Amino acid sequence: MSQLDIAASAQPRLQRALVGLAKSREITVAAVLVVIIALTTFKSDGFLFSSDGWRNLLVSPALLMILAVGQAVVIITRNVDLSVGSTLGLTAYLTGKVFIQWPDLPVPLVFVIGLAFGALLGLVNGVLIAFGRVPAIVITLGTLYVYRGIFLSWAGSDRVNASDFPSSFNELGTKAILTIPVVTIIALVVMGLVGYYLYTARSGREFYAIGSDEDAAKLYGLPVTRRVLLAFVLSGALAGLAGVVYAARYGTVSSGAGLGIELQAVGAAVIGGVAIAGGVGTVWGATIGAVLLITINRALPVWGISDFWQQAVVGALILGAITLDRLYSRRQERLLIAARDLAHAAPTKVGTAS
Amino acid sequence: MKIRNRRLSALAAVTVVASLALTACGSSDSDGGSSSSGGSDGGNVSVTFLPKNLGNPYFDTSDAGGKEAVEAFGGTYDEVGPDTATPDAQVSYINTAAQQGVNALVVSANDPEAICDALDEARDAGTKVVTFDSDTNPECRDLFINQATADGIAKVEVDMIAEQIGDSGQIAILSAAANATNQNAWIELMKKDLAADHPNIDLVDVVYGDDDDQTSFDKTAGLLESHPDLKGIISPTTVGIAAAARYLSTSDAKGKVALTGLGTPNQMREYVKDGTVTEFALWNPHDLGYLAAYAAQALVNGDITGAEGDSFTAGDLGDFTVGKDGTVLLGDPYRFNKDNIDDFDF
């Protein structure tokens, strides 16, 4: 890292600024988000200043934020979890069925059940991937269909309706503390906990090491199997949590719940600067990516852009993010080579420059 | 009880197939077979209901209506059906019913083509075939009980929204998928109706929730954000209206923006009771089954043949006349509101 900094200071100012900007992807994405919110509010002030607008701004992305955190952890270890949409749906339906069976169950316990059930489904992924040594994309694509299949045969054409949930649970979807919706607080707490762990804990840093170079991590003696397993259990548990949140927010659960949301979660992580090749990115970046993705989807209709174009805009965002990644990593590669050459050519001069 | 019934009839179906294969004989031979519920002499008409699948609250309701009608005219009622609504799953049940020599079969077809051969065989064996809810090709059945016409559905939705917003103001439509045939046909008719009879109602937007709870929910939020002066939303899809009601019930727009469309009572009960939704429509599946049963009886007794212009009486529902292509129309869609919603469970 220090070598890179030395090299960067040797570059022209504009280039340095660009590198700095691209390096802090989180700040870039957050800035884009602020601009979009500002412009949309300018167009229709209810977008931010009405109580509905303020609440929707905070509550709509919550579900995807939770999923994006789990997905980010998995992608950082150079894997991917495509089964989260099915896990979410299955857990949401389970939540409904649990309430139909025991209407008086305390709400926090239902959240625990959701987390545990999701973790179990995640464990299946983790075991197959970590021990079976099969690429995660294949395993989780398989479990995506398996879990969805179980869901379909369990639910059939049946659905859970809002009237099946106790009202204290239904209210959770809109309840707010100091104008911040509870659901959003849950998502922020998840982000904070997982982000703190990844950033500060030794085992948290090992996720990055594994994603950067699994073989090197193994040679170094890191518990690769255990960490990958943990990443998938975490992703599954968070998808389970998102399932309970889904039930609370939407009130209706049919067998289509969560269909296709896994790709949004991957998209959110990528937009937020989590490199799909692993080892790079932060949980907070993925979260802000999720907020951007959802907010753009909500802003486009206000701008009068038709339904049909909205997905294209999201696609363009993902392509843009990946292009930015590629440009950045190529630049970094070049800088590293330059730094190495510089260090070999004149070690004393560089030393004084720093 | 149901499960045992199904198992039994599945077993019977296997037996029938096996016996047909072994003896390679026609259906006339089997008339005197295992007909436990048969016997068309006098008023004892046996009617078997075959819904798309069992355990579906919609068909539970329609078949309960059928049962009530059959019991009212003193016939024998039975219900059989597959677990899942797949195209060919109904064939074995049709074969069994024909084998048992039931007088009439009331079917909601999973596929307009796939069950045609089986129905033809049953009709050759003397069973009258009435379809309801979902038709087969017209050649394969005697009568189709149509729950509603596109015109009727479009009109009731426009009428309801006009009543609820005082016949003037901005409205929007929350539809299913952009390529959904039914919804698009209804939307076209609604647009014509609005232009002709409701000049003060301005349809400002049509959005598509893809019959997905989450998408429909988010599109409703988007509609309210992009059209601050919106006064009403029509959602001609059961998934859409429930999701829109869920969003409205938790927003400032509750009670200010009217919502109506096609929905089922179980999905909408909560929102009708909390005042989010005043009235929505659908046909009444109970009446649909009830009418189908009486139509079946009229066919069996020879009161009608299924020709255009034939008319018959369906108990409490009154008189009905057979229309074009052997179709009987149940009537205008049924409106659900807080006064009657608790009478339904589907």
Write the layout of secondary structure elements.
The complex is a heterodimer of chains A (354) and B (346).
Chain A: H1 2-9, H2 13-23, H3 25-43, H4 46-49, H5 51-59, H6 62-76, H7 84-101, H8 107-132, H9 136-155, H10 167-172, E1 176-177, E2 180-181, H11 182-200, H12 202-212, H13 214-219, H14 224-250, H15 261-271, H16 283-302, H17 307-345, H18 347-353
Antiparallel strand pairs in A: 1-2
Chain B: H1 2-23, E1 46-50, H2 57-72, E2 76-79, H3 91-100, E3 104-107, H4 116-124, E4 128-132, E5 143-146, H5 150-165, E6 169-175, H6 181-197, E7 201-208, H7 213-226, E8 230-235, H8 238-249, E9 258-261, H9 265-273, E10 279-282, H10 285-300, E11 311-313, E12 319-321, E13 327-329, E14 334-337
Parallel strand pairs in B: 1-2, 1-3, 3-4, 4-5, 5-13, 6-7, 6-8, 8-9
Antiparallel strand pairs in B: 10-14, 11-12
Helix pairs in contact in B: 1-3, 2-10, 3-4, 5-6, 7-8
CATH topology of chain A: ABC transporter involved in vitamin B12 uptake, BtuC
Largest sheet features of chain B:
6 strands, parallel
The CATH fourth-level homologous superfamily of the largest domain in chain B: Response regulator
- For the record, the CATH architecture of chain A stands as Orthogonal Bundle
The radius of gyration computed from the alpha-carbon positions of chain A, rounded to a whole number of angstroms, is 22 Å
Q: How far apart lie the N and C ends of chain A?
A: 13 Å
Mean pLDDT of chain A: 87
What is the name of the CATH class of the largest domain in chain B?
Answer: Alpha Beta
Q: Pick out the low-confidence regions of chain B.
A: 13-42
**What number of structural domains do the residues of chain A give?**
1
Describe this structure in words.
The complex is a heterodimer of chains A (354) and B (346). The longest helix of chain A has 39 residues, at 307-345. A two-stranded antiparallel sheet of chain A has the order 1-2. Chain A has a single domain (2-353), classed as ABC transporter involved in vitamin B12 uptake, BtuC. The model of chain A is unreliable at 349-354 (pLDDT under 50). In chain A, helix 1 (2-9) packs across helix 17 (307-345), helix 6 (62-76) packs across helix 15 (261-271) and helix 6 runs antiparallel to helix 16 (283-302). By secondary structure, chain A is mainly α. Chain A has 18 helices and 2 strands. The two termini of chain A are 13 Å apart. Chain B has 346 residues and is of the alpha/beta class. Chain B has 2 domains: 2-148 and 285-331, Rossmann fold, CATH 3.40.50.2300; 150-282, Response regulator (Rossmann fold, 3-Layer(aba) Sandwich), CATH 3.40.50.2300. Helices cover 41% and strands 18% of the residues of chain B. Chain B has helices spanning 2-23, 57-72, 91-100, 116-124, 150-165, 181-197, 213-226, 238-249, 265-273, 285-300; strands spanning 46-50, 76-79, 104-107, 128-132, 143-146, 169-175, 201-208, 230-235, 258-261, 279-282, 311-313, 319-321, 327-329, 334-337. In chain B, the strands form 4 sheets. Chain B has a 6-stranded parallel beta sheet, sandwiched between helices. In chain B, strands 7-6-8-9 form a 4-stranded parallel beta sheet, with helices on both faces. In chain B, helix 8 links the parallel strand 8 (230-235) and strand 9 (258-261). In chain B, helix 3 runs parallel beside helix 4 and helix 5 (150-165) packs across helix 6 (181-197). Chain B is elongated and about 65 Å long. The A-B interface holds A 44, 46-47, 50-53, 56, 60, 156-159, 161-163, 173-174, 246, 249-254, 256-259, 261, 297-298, 301-302, 304, 307-308 and B 53, 55-57, 84-85, 178, 207-208, 211-214, 217-219, 221-226, 228, 239, 242-243, 246, 250-253, 266-267, 269-271. Chain A: Part of the ABC transporter complex LsrABCD involved in autoinducer 2 (AI-2) import. Probably responsible for the translocation of the substrate across the membrane. Chain A: Pfam families: BPD_transp_2. Chain A: Keywords: Cell inner membrane, Cell membrane, Membrane, Transmembrane, Transmembrane helix, Transport. Chain A: The complex is composed of two ATP-binding proteins (LsrA), two transmembrane proteins (LsrC and LsrD) and a solute-binding protein (LsrB).
